[in-house]
Every structure is written in structure tokens, then in C-alpha cells.
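Quick check before the chapter quiz. The format below is the same one you will see on the exam, so make sure you can read both the input and the output lines.
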Amino acid sequence: MGISIQDKVALVTGANRGIGKSIVETFIEEGAKKVYLAVRNPESTAELTQKYGDKVVAVQLDVTDGNGIQLLAKEIQDLDILVNNAGVLVPTEPLNEQAEEALEHELDVNLFGLVRIAKAFAPQLEKNRGALVQMNSVVSLRTFPQVSTYSASKAASYAITQALRETLGERGVQVLSVHPGPIETDMAKQAGLEEGEAPSTVARGIVESLANGNFHLFPDPMAKTFEAAYQGFSDAIITADFSE
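Here is the expected output.
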């Protein structure tokens, strides 16, 4: 199973900067018919709306607001591809006084946000036999102390993504779990990473992985080292069929 971006309608959360913005640009370059820019402040998408005109539609969305997500899902009925890219990172070591507060915030956005989004939009993705793309991370597989709570939230979102692969897959919906390493974004700078790959590396990897029907994407050089070590376990355990 694979899906092309050509002539499709997509929605990208956190579309106003970094990886999200690059995904929007790449989707349109690859022939997407329309992209919804789902952000907390629609005015922050001015650059994209000026550049692409009626090919993009800015919509207000906060992934911590379940009611708002449900209302938006009722308004949008032409969706083929949903990219859940919005996320937060609070650099926190596990014994830091703020660790619990940071973890609560990150789980609300990075984990519960995914659950809220998936529940709201699953019916129309099923109707259109579309795709759900979840932005996870290499730190969903290996925790680093300075981003310990973020790692925990991404490990949890990866667990839910695996479950979505099976439940939505049975309904004809493709699921893609994206695991970048260091990417040149504001979030990476928050984590103390001054250098990284261009966000377009992730965006173009998503287009290719969707077309190929892949479940995992490890888009950049560091991520590919994780992929090489993880592949055997993934084939034998994560994507294996345990239904028999």
C-alpha cells in the first residue's frame, strides 16, 4: 500500500515553521491540490499564504484542545493525508525539579495530541483511504538525559503510532512513523543542537516513504545509524504479524 501526494488534500499541524513548513512546501511542489496549515495562530502562516495563495488554507488548531479538534474535523471533509507534526520540547534531566511539569506538558502535546488528532480525523481518512503521518524521533528509541522527558513522550507516541498502524491499516489507512535525528530547527536549538540536516530532508523522505508504503522513516544520517541497528528488531517484532 502506498499513496502519492499528487492531487491530494493534506493537513499539517505545526505548519508555520521548521519541519512543518518544509512539509507544506514539499507537498505543494509534489503536486498536492491543497494543504491546510493547522496552527495555534493562523497569522503566523502569512509567508506561506502569500507564496501559495489558494493552495493553502490557514486554520486555527491547538492539539491540546479536544473540542477544537473535533470541530475542525467536522469542517474539513476532503482530507487525504494528515501530518501530525506539532510538538514541544522542554530540555529537562530526569532529576530536575521541573521534570514532572515538563513531562506533563510534553505528554499533553506530543502524546495526547496524537490521540486526539487520530480519533477526530480517522473516519475521513478511512473514507478517503488516506494516510496518517506521525512525527516521532530517534529519541523515541534511545533516551538522552538532557531531553529525558521529551524522549519519554516520544517513546509513548511511537507506541501509539504502532497501534494506529494496525488499527487504521485494517481500515485502509496508511500510517508512517517519522524518526528524525538532529534537524536544523528552533526545537533542535532548544535541545542544544546547533547543527543539523535541512528540514527538507524530512519532508522529501515523507513523500518517498508514503509512495513506497513504508511504516518507518529515518530520514537523516544520524537517524539512519539508528535504522541500521533497529531494522532486525523492527522486522521481527514491530512490523511482524502476530495475529496467527
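If your answer matched, good. The longest strand covers residues 34-39.
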